[in-house]
Amino acid sequence: MQISTDSQKISELKQSRYPNSLRFPEHFKDKSYAFFSGESYTISKPFVLQGISTLENKLSTIIVKPAFGAFSKFSHLQFSQDLKPEFCIKGNHNIQLGEVKIIEHPIALMSAFGFYLDFDLEQPSFPTFDFCDQVYLDGIRDNFQKIGDIPCFTVKKSFVIIWEKGYCILEPDDGDQILSLDHQVSYPGDTVGNARIKADMSPQLFAYIASARTTAFRSGVEAEKFYQIGMTGGLKDYPFTLENVILLNEEKIFNPREKFESQGLNYEFLAHELIDILAWIRFVEEEYKGRFVGKMTTYLFDHHKQIDIAQFVCDRNRFSEIGIRIL
Q1: pLDDT exceeding 90 applies to what percent of the chain?
Q2: Spatial CB neighbours of 60, under 8 Å, sequence gap ≥ 6
Q3: DSSP state string for 134-197
Q4: Within a 13 Å sphere around the CA of 75, how many CA atoms are in the beta-carbon half?
């Protein structure tokens, strides 16, 4: 990856983005979750979830517990790891922390709401739940307590990390103390195609989009075959169903959910993209003990790239030239 603070380079990348951007409809908000950016939280009592672990395809129990340490923890059997990017492993296409895999969905929720949580998994990978992060939202509803007040922070100056394909730009907060996301994707065909979504992340927006499913994009007739497999119970060695993924090809979405439809568009794909790209921010917030605000502009920003940038920003020595500013 290449790291640059050159303002002209950043400007050129932003000017090359697709000119037409989408925004979520105004009603994409759930105001029943009252959390505030200047506070951090944990749950009052543990809750238990069950699902089929994604990579092992086995029934698994997940215990979500209050956090008591300086960092959230993820545990499997006798192995336990603090939520620090230095412990991340690049394996399958996910964010893996030590032995524990597919942590991107729970840590995205933790970032959106300011939660410190500990997770204890029976199997080493998280399930692909039918309603993604909604299961955690249900668990924290009326089951949380404030840990304390925390500051908002931002980067001192703009920078971009560029990979062979894709990039991530971080820019300082402009005074609003919000996290603004500008995410761009490129897929064959017209179902998603060249799409760009802009959103100001808030607990209310995240609570609405939290149920957006993981995407399964397959080309042409392959998607038709997957649809038939889903109709007959899913794959033998992988817990894929038509309930836990959104299946699409170049021409159509096979199993759309009405919740995400508005004025002829279906936003579920892009909603899940925001869940995915938000995840790495939680590493930064736990390292610097606050809530990150500013602007993040991304393109082809996959989970391995998120590990790269999390490791860079959380390395206080390497990141000191750019730096963090407490607001």
Answers
A1: 88
A2: 50, 51, 52, 53, 121, 122, 123, 127
A3: HHHHHHHTT-EEEEEE--EEEESS-EEEE-SS-EEEEE---SS--EEEEEEEE-STTTTSEEEE
A4: 17
CATH class of 2-33+153-276: alpha beta
**Which band of pLDDT confidence, cut at 50, 70 and 90, is reported for residue 275?**
very high
Return the domain boundaries, the chain.
2-33+153-276
Q: How many residues does the chain have?
A: 327
> How many whole angstroms separate alpha carbon 161 and alpha carbon 98?
24
Give the pLDDT band (50/70/90) at residue 239.
confident
pLDDT score recorded for residue 235: 63
Supply 157's token pair.
């100056």
* Rounded mean pLDDT, 190-201: 94
Roughly how many angstroms between the first and final C-alpha of the chain, as a whole number?
Answer: 29
Closest CA to 33 of 107, 117, 142, 106: 142
Q: 3-class SS at 220? A: helix
